[in-house]
Design a protein that fits this description.
mainly alpha, 19 helices, 1% strand
């Protein structure tokens, strides 16, 4: 009788939207790991363990870009295609891709599926979510195709046509989805990532634009597209664009000042090279993980500043990570309001609700606690400076992908910790908590209010 009841409960089980997202990402990561662990996915001169394949699959699906093996030299063309497909699905969201096939086959999108889409896109309601998904797919296709054409045309100046087209498509997808993977290590005379193009205005500008559009979120992109017609932006878009612009400008100025005399980074470059180098690191540090300067050669103070930028991250509903620029804006607004003795947090003449302020504090403290805990554990299991370990842990949790050189030397325990950080950071700890919590009880009573001394 007990077994029959248990079976009946299993058959009646209907996963919640957070559970669908969590199990969906796990399923996608496991499929990717299985494909990458096959001999067809890597070159003959490399030995790939299942843990390494799982690490690479997680990094691609969670659009992080941290690698234990070199994407350009250690993986075959098949393996590279698997990685970039995982990055595309992970960046747009597997539910978005599933919706694409449903729309192609004229399948009706159920209300439950709309709830999952709402959760995955951080959208305000289920109303208009399918229309929004159509826009997401269209915008992603147009932006990635434009980037691929521009990059392919430029790469034709230095490599065969077939290879230049492949490189253009691969890197356009990687840059827009803030995935951080590159293939430039295939050239023995070049360093990895975009270090070879540090003084190249074309590659820098195209790459930064792809990263920017991928990092502001599809809601903002949609409003920017319609802005010439209706001349209207929501509070969300205003906050994302303004904070993104301020952080990019301040980040570039600080990095320029700190690295100006560093002989290993900006000092040997021209004025244009220094400017592009500082600006690119500021843009990429909050989401993309690419670099035109070796992060391991940066001064420690610059590395710590980049840790702060990584922690803030990109916009909600984007391909980037971090606590999000909107969370950061609410926190700064709350600090300013408290210092001025005001009760309300006001942004662009709109009052922010107490619930959102509490959520911003919660998200920040959870992220801070997870990164601190992981850094402490990695300090025991790994050999490296504390700052390098903090850099790597923050990069993993915030799905940035910049590395101070530690990831390629991780122990097995270290790899597992980084895998968990990337997974939790991409899903979000709150989504994961809701996925694990099968029952939610409404409190039937409240405790009396108490007062404690603060400060």
């Amino acid at each position: 009788m007990f077994k029959f009841a248990a079976l009946r409960n299993i058959l009646r089980f209907r996963p919640s939207p957070p559970q669908v997202m969590t199990f969906g990402f796990i399923f996608l990561i496991l499929i990717g790991a299985q494909l990458l662990s096959q001999p067809i996915s890597y070159t003959n001169d490399v030995s790939l363990s299942y843990l390494d394949a799982l690490f690479m699959s997680t990094s691609a699906t969670c659009v992080t870009g941290l690698t234990v093996l070199n994407t350009g030299t250690h993986f075959s063309t098949f393996g590279q295609v698997v990685i970039i497909v995982l990055a595309q699905i992970g960046g747009l969201g597997f539910m978005t891709m599933a919706t694409l096939f449903a729309l192609l086959f004229r399948k009706r999108i159920s209300f439950r599926e709309r709830l999952v889409l709402q959760e995955s896109m951080n959208y305000g309601s289920t109303e208009g979510i399918v229309r929004m998904i159509r826009k997401v797919l269209l915008y992603a296709l147009v932006i990635e195709l434009t980037g691929a054409v521009l990059l392919s045309g430029y790469f034709m100046l230095e490599m065969p046509i077939g290879k230049s087209i492949y490189f253009g498509i691969f890197h356009s997808i990687s840059f827009f989805n803030n995935a951080g993977f590159d293939l430039f290590s295939q050239f023995p005379e070049r360093a990895s990532s975009l270090i070879h193009y540090v003084e190249d205005p074309f590659v820098n500008i195209v790459s930064m634009l792809l990263i920017f559009f991928g990092g502001i979120g599809f809601i903002v992109i949609s409003e920017l597209v319609t802005y010439p017609k209706n001349r209207k932006l929501s509070l969300h878009s205003k906050v994302v664009l303004s904070v993104t612009g301020i952080l990019t400008a301040v980040g570039a100025i600080v990095i320029f000042a700190l690295e100006f005399s560093n002989t290993n980074t900006l000092q040997p470059l021209t004025v244009i090279g220094k400017t592009l180098g500082a600006l690119f690191q500021s843009v990429t540090a909050r989401s993309a993980g690419l670099s035109t300067i070796d992060p391991s050669q940066l001064r420690e103070v610059t590395q710590f500043f980049i840790v702060l930028l990584m922690f803030i991250g990109a916009g909600p509903g984007s391909t980037g990570g971090g606590i999000r620029v909107t969370t950061f804006a609410i926190l700064i607004g709350a600090i300013v309001a408290m210092m001025r003795g005001r009760e309300d947090v006001v942004l662009f003449r709109y009052r922010i609700s107490k619930t959102q302020i509490h959520q911003a504090i919660m998200f920040t403290m959870i992220a801070f606690s997870i990164i601190c805990g992981a850094t402490m554990i990695l300090s025991i299991t790994e050999t490296g400076s504390f700052l390098a370990i903090l850099f790597e842990a923050t990069s993993a949790y915030c799905t940035v992908g910049m590395s101070a050189g530690l990831t390629s030397h991780l122990s097995d325990i270290g790899k597992i910790i980084i895998i968990l950080l990337m997974f939790v950071g991409r899903l979000g700890p709150v989504t994961l908590a809701f996925a694990l919590n099968t029952r939610s009880k409404k409190e039937l009573y409240r405790f009396p209010e108490g007062k404690i001394t603060i400060g």
